[in-house]
Design goal:
This protein has 10 helices and 10 strands. It is an alpha/beta fold and 335 residues long. The two termini are 34 Å apart.
Length: 335
């Protein structure tokens, strides 16, 4: 039986655009809770119609260890996703290599003491583990929810945090950053200080549109645009293009009687995508679904159709980068 969300999303039916274009979805989550479940069968169902060949899982505090040292509990998420990767990335697996890359959490505020945690993640998934995400998204307003990692203000400027970040480089591990638009310049400083760390910025750097930022979209876009230009000067940073439809971004689509079409989404959001692609180049940009979080606003088909509409004037090689090759290269994926 379809859920209320499914019924709402199913009001918009579209044929997949460019259905043969190879795609990697480099940002999705999975969990299995009593009141909420999103597992490979759900992701595969959502992806039908598009030629998704591989995906990257990104941490969401799923299946943490229940015992042992606190610092090691996140390794349970890597163990959980490794079991899924082993099932879906074998030669006998279905067509989509689910979780061909795994990005988990380690508390980089441990500084150099995070080394054993990183090594434990690597041991838990020698073939698929690729890196760490430690979100710093923080805002002073009580109307803006801070990240699940419970960051403090100016986390990415913290000396001990950066000592932990530095541990990633010799292990050849990536770092996914998640911040709000007000914090992008802090990420710029961190990227310049650690040029050997491969950094991926999630969700456009979170341009906020709620609380004190509501009704200021154009004003915030000007600030965001300028800061993205500074970030693009850091050659060790690449950009994930997606995650723009969360409630914090203030579009309000999830409150409507009918969800948006791909054409509507493309028209509303194209300037964010095109500015990042202009500044970073297609070889440093990758489209992402941020599912199932962004599923509250649009189906996978409608969302990726909007991406394909935005990218319609790019060359075949540029589309290859945007939809697959950048993600496969940055995360060192086989697929």
């Amino acid at each position: 039986m379809a859920s209320e969300l499914d019924q709402w999303l199913n009001q918009i039916k579209e044929d997949p655009l460019e259905p043969d274009l190879p795609m990697c979805d480099p940002h999705h989550h999975m969990w299995d809770y009593p009141d909420s479940r999103y597992m490979p069968v759900d992701l595969v169902e959502d992806m039908k119609g598009h030629n998704v060949v591989s995906t990257v899982f990104v941490e969401c505090t799923s299946e943490y260890r229940t015992g042992g040292p606190e610092s090691m509990k996140p390794v349970g998420e890597t163990e959980f996703m490794n079991r899924i990767a082993e099932e879906y990335c074998s030669e006998e697996s279905p067509e989509i290599a689910i979780s061909a890359g795994i990005v988990s959490f380690a508390d980089l505020c441990l500084g150099r003491e995070v080394q054993p945690v990183l090594e434990a993640h690597m041991a838990a998934s020698p073939e698929y583990f690729r890196g760490i995400r430690h979100a710093c998204s923080w805002d002073a307003s009580n109307e803006v929810r801070n990240s699940h990692t419970k960051p403090f203000e100016h986390l990415y400027l913290d000396k001990t945090f950066r000592q932990g970040l530095a541990c990633l480089e010799p292990l050849n591990l990536t770092f996914d950053a998640w911040c709000y638009h007000t914090q992008i310049l802090e990420l710029v400083d961190m990227a310049r200080t650690h040029p050997g760390v491969s950094i991926i910025l999630d969700h456009f750097g979170g341009p906020l549109g709620i609380g004190p930022y509501e009704g200021k979209r154009d004003e915030i876009f000007v600030e965001w645009k300028k800061n993205i230009e500074e970030l693009a000067k850091c050659p060790n940073v690449v950009m994930k293009l997606g995650g723009l439809l969360m409630p914090i971004n203030g579009w309000g689509y999830h409150k409507r009687d009918v969800p948006p079409t791909s054409e509507e989404l493309a028209t509303a959001t194209a300037r964010y995508y095109l500015h990042c692609i202009e500044q970073f180049g297609p070889e440093r940009c990758m489209f992402e679904s941020n599912f199932p979080v962004d599923r509250k606003t649009a189906s996978f088909n409608v969302l990726w159709n909007s991406f394909k509409r935005i990218a319609k004037d790019f060359s075949d090689s540029e589309k290859a980068d945007l939809f697959h090759d950048t993600a496969a290269r940055v995360y060192n994926l086989k697929y």
